[in-house]
């Protein structure tokens, strides 16, 4: 890269003020949010998706709790009319981002409860814990089970 950063950067393009804000480890260890202030648009990359369950990229430093925290941070930045551009899928808004963050927390908590009950990965995946989110989120098919498997593996290993 030509430019690296550890803290937020702000620059101007024409009449637009643009901020690039690094996030804690989430989808990867290098996630950022880009905010176009005058346009009231936020680009989140894969911290938020409107058509797929998340992918926590272990090889590049991803973190489940970081993904949740990044979504919360974006919610805090978004105003009532902010357009949020996800990494995959159509544009959304603050309410959509809120639903996403709530889904992440619910899946984490559901899987954690099953681990505490001694359930195996296969038993947990067979419960289809994401079925209440499938109609809006699961493209491609099976990404909910993949996500549950990732959450299970992280929690079972004591990672977040």
The termini sit apart by 28 Å
Average pLDDT figure: 89
Count all strands and give the number.
Answer: 5
Cross-sheet strand order for the largest sheet: 1-2-3-4-5
The biggest beta sheet, please? Answer: 5 strands, mixed
* Overall outline: globular
Rounded Rg: 16 Å
SS field, number of helical segments:
5
Order of helices and strands: EEEEHEHHHH
Structural class comes to alpha+beta
Helix content: 40-55%
Strand content of the residues, in percent? Answer: 15-25%
Can you tell me the residue ranges where pLDDT is under 50 for at least 5 consecutive residues?
A: none
In short:
With 160 residues, the protein is of the alpha+beta class. Helices cover 40% and strands 20% of the residues. The longest helix has 23 residues, at 94-116.
